[in-house]
TrEMBL record:
PANTHER family: METALLOPHOSPHATASE BINDING DOMAIN PROTEIN, PHOD-LIKE PHOSPHATASE METALLOPHOSPHATASE DOMAIN-CONTAINING PROTEIN. Residues 138-467 form the PhoD-like phosphatase metallophosphatase domain. This is Alkaline phosphatase D family protein. InterPro entries: DUF7800, Metallo-depent_PP-like, PhoD-like_MPP, PhoD-like_sf. It comes from the Bacteria. Residues 1-90 form the DUF7800 domain. CDD domains: MPP_PhoD. Pfam families: DUF7800, PhoD.
Length: 542
């Protein structure tokens, strides 16, 4: 009997369509059914590196639908699993006229002990949805903004799997090396916790990668890239990381229309026909995506009622050459510029890396970029690059030109220069392992502008790192760092902002609620594997 290896996952949804993603243990026909609702949709699997996947497209649904479903493989029902304590997964379409709730977070270590990583916000969130009944307001979307897996910081379970496959000391030591390693990372993250597996089967989920999905400090600088490609094991690692991301994460972010016109998906399906394997096709694509970032767009945008969500790839699409550097390459920035428009009630811009850091950190990173770029001479540039990599100074603040270009777009939208100004413009981010809200002061803008950070879902800062970031978040500390940046000829930021909520260093999940022209956000932290308590709640629109 064919079995599910991973999934089912409810991925991209609209008001009338839905996507179910699965991995199976052999090639097969996968169907998603509910006889009472006339639901019967199916797809054949495709194969890459010996693993088998299916994307089932469902159309003709009603807005706001809540339809329990079964997964049938070659005529046998494999989901829900017999004897499960969890209710059946549901297909949940969006209601464009109702309240939109988006829950989000980043940086989740799984598995591992609560003593090491704390309680899992995603697990506790799933338990509340399962047991809360009608009193619980369900999210319409779950957005995971980076570090869904940690390929370079292994748990004991992942380390044991790798040690069973290759000799001790074989590079890369204590890190994922190939596609098979990545498939096990995703299994540990999304399959072995029954609460999380159920959650992903019933809440529409969207994702974007961050560095640990590939490797710490991924694409920090041109120098970093040169150092990595000099390693004999790097090609296998980067093609595995990007290729598996395309299958396990990116395919579900795409709309049905985007998947239908995707040449890579067509090529992978074609290579899989007749028992073939598309691993080589996938590897060639992944290597090209890394070496030629403008050959692939990982960013995406979706409009849901009066809200536009723009999810920006701030990792793979970077412009990194000896002469130029940008958070986004030219084509990617033109795309982002086109998406930043008015005429919506709310504009959400999600990036794994916070656009607005605490101001102390922002000035430190902008100073470091200038020094590493030669503002204080060649010797200082070498030292600046070492500091950059050692201290992870590679957020938007460390790409000064990119930071300013985004600021220009946001100000133009907020002033109503690109259509009627939204009520709110919010940046949604993770990465930094603490949560906060910063508000922007931009004279002449009609929109309330904010940076909302929720991190981590499960991987808290400890010790010195926590204390350093707590100090950096204090008001009045940023002055000396701004003076340092000024000495390196860094101009003043085009925006002014200050942290008004947080920082909180707990594991957490945040939920944004959008009703008409109102926008609120709430952060919650798990105090047990089955319970959440509120950290903070505030309104973005005033």
């Amino acid at each position: 009997m064919t079995a599910l290896a991973l999934g089912p996952h409810l991925r991209h949804v609209s008001d009338r369509t839905a996507t179910i993603w699965v991995e199976t243990d052999r090639p097969c026909e996968v169907r998603v059914v509910n006889a009472d609702h006339g639901l019967d949709a199916g797809a054949r699997t495709f194969t890459a590196h010996g693993h088998h996947y299916a994307i089932v497209e469902i159309d003709g649904l009603e807005p706001g639908a809540r339809i329990p479903y079964e997964v049938v493989i070659d005529g046998e029902t494999v989901w829900p699993e017999p004897g499960s304590d969890y209710p059946p997964g549901q297909i949940r379409t969006l209601d464009p006229d109702g309240t939109l709730r988006i829950s989000f977070g980043s940086c989740r270590r799984s598995p591992g002990t609560a003593e090491r990583f704390g309680h899992d916000a995603l697990t506790a969130f799933a338990h509340r949805l399962r047991t809360g009944g009608d009193a619980v307001a369900w999210p319409d979307v779950l957005l995971m903004v980076g570090d869904q897996v940690y390929a370079d910081e292994l748990t004991d379970e992942m380390r044991a799997f790798i040690n069973s496959r290759r000799a001790e000391g074989e590079p890369p030591v204590d890190e994922a090396a190939d596609f098979e390693d990545y498939t096990h990372l995703y299994k540990l993250a999304w399959h072995d916790d029954p609460a999380v597996r159920w959650l992903l089967s019933t809440v529409p989920t969207f994702t974007i990668f961050d560095d640990h999905d590939i490797r710490d400090d991924w694409n920090t600088s041109y120098t970093w890239r040169q150092q990595m490609w000099a390693q004999p094991w790097w090609r296998s690692r980067i093609t595995a990381g990007i290729g598996s991301y395309w299958i396990y994460q990116h395919l579900g972010n795409m709309s049905p229309q985007e998947r239908a016109s995707d040449p890579l998906l067509a090529a992978v399906r074609g290579a899989s026909e007749g028992g073939g394997d598309a691993g080589e096709v996938l590897d060639e694509f992944a290597e090209r995506a890394d070496k030629q970032p403008d050959s692939m767009r990982w960013s995406y945008a979706h409009d849901w009622g009066g809200t536009r969500l723009i999810v920006v790839d701030s990792r793979c699409s970077r412009l990194l050459t000896p002469d130029r550097r940008g958070m986004l390459d030219d084509g990617e920035f033109r795309w982002l510029d086109e998406q930043c428009q008015g005429g919506m009630d709310h504009l959400l811009i999600a990036s794994s890396l916070p656009y607005l850091l605490p101001r102390t950190v922002h000035h430190a990173e902008s100073w470091n970029e200038a020094v590493a770029g030669g503002a204080w001479g060649r010797r200082a540039a070498v030292v600046g690059e070492k500091i950059r990599q050692a201290a992870d100074l590679e957020h938007w603040a460390a790409f000064e030109r990119s930071f300013r270009e985004v600021a220009e777009d946001v100000i133009a939208v907020g002033k109503g220069e690109r259509g009627p100004a939204p009520a709110s413009i919010s940046f949604l981010s993770g990465d930094v392992h603490y949560s906060y809200l910063s508000r922007v002061t931009a004279p002449g803008t009609a929109s309330d502008i904010a940076q909302i950070v929720c991190s981590p879902l499960r991987n808290p800062l400890i010790g010195t790192y926590r204390q350093a970031n707590r100090i950096a978040s204090l008001r009045g500390v940023s002055g000396p760092f701004r003076a340092l940046a000024k000495l390196a000829k860094v101009p003043a930021p085009p925006l002014r902002w200050r942290m008004t909520e947080g920082p909180w260093f707990d594991n957490a999940i945040a939920t944004i609620e959008l009703t008409g022209r109102n926008c609120t956000v709430q952060w919650e932290t798990p105090h047990a594997e089955t319970a959440l308590t509120e950290l903070g709640r505030t309104s973005i629109t005033r």
